Amino acid sequence: MLIRELDENDTDDVRRLRKVAFGSTSEDPPLRPGRRGLVAELDGRPAAVLSISEFHQFYGGAPVPMAGIGGVAVDPYARGRGLATGLLDRSLADLREHGQPLSALYATVPALYRSRGWERAGVFEWLDVSIDRLPTAPKVLARPAGEGDLDALHACYTDLASTVNGLLDRTKPAIDVAEVLKLDIVSVVPGHDGEVRGYLTAERSREGLRVFDLVGRDAATQLGLLRELTSWAGLLDQVSLRVTDPAVTGLLTNQGIRHTVNTSVWQLRVVDLPAAVAARGWPAAEALKPAAVDLEVVDEHAPWHAGRQRLVVEDGSVRVEPGGDGAVRLHARALGPWFSGMQDSHALRRAGLLDGDAALLDRLVGAPGVPRLADFF
Q1: What pLDDT, in 10s, does the model give residues 71-99?
Q2: Positive or negative CA dihedral for 93, 98, 104, 108?
Q3: What's the predicted TM-score (pTM) here?
Q4: Which residues does residue 44 pair with via DSSP β-bridges, in sequence order?
């Protein structure tokens, strides 16, 4: 088996592999700005592939470099021969070399990725909203978005995303905000001096209306955008709303005790613990007295951060440095759900992924709500 970087000559092979694996007929190029990949060859023939996208995920208000792993496909004849695990092992070193201390993915085969240190760390959700359950509210003066609104629209999104652990910052080159203008519906609520108070993006199909983002800087704007959806009454009984802002679906809609949420889960992998901790925001650290916890990181696939590490809280900042007595033993799979805030040390201990008193780790992460993504890759 030979593992190498993906190049332009692999385009046809990658499309073939992904058609066989996923039924995909997408003409999306496997290589583009913000995306690279790895190929595994058998007997000189590409037999497996994965892609790596260059994202940033918000944690504690700070955008942390994150590699989105996607499109992992293995030719049927080559399955069971270690190609997928070989690609994942090679990818970990590649991510570290490219300064990406985190990696997230949507796992179709969770056991495969768990064996290499990824673990469930957040959700991606769609809520089916009955139109008659939408709140009545004063109308807001929305208008169609244009190219001149893109920067202000993105600023509106970023203000939200920086407060929700896990959301992407949606910056170039991996994401081009201008792509949003290709959607059927892009409404903005203008504010003062070119500001956007809120916006709504959606796509209409025979199956119904899919609302990708409903984002507002205040409750009145969000409620006004929800009211805009009531104009579909008579044509549709319900709309599907992607949960970008949990306040909209959790606090502002009138769903009954039973309602439908379609949930996908994503897994997170801490590739380089010291670098990830240094890049993350730690709002709770400002209120903590100087403290430290000694870790023993068990991670055979990322030896550069395995072993004894000391997590230090001092002067409102957090860092990881070598040393300590290893009083708290952390499996590689524990790092992702702890870092995202999805699981506390008690749950990780019950799952057999942590041993020792990790109360400081819990105090640092706090309880900021369920980590979530609102983009698929």
Answers
A1: 999 999 999 999 999 999 999 999 999 99
A2: negative
A3: 0.95
A4: none
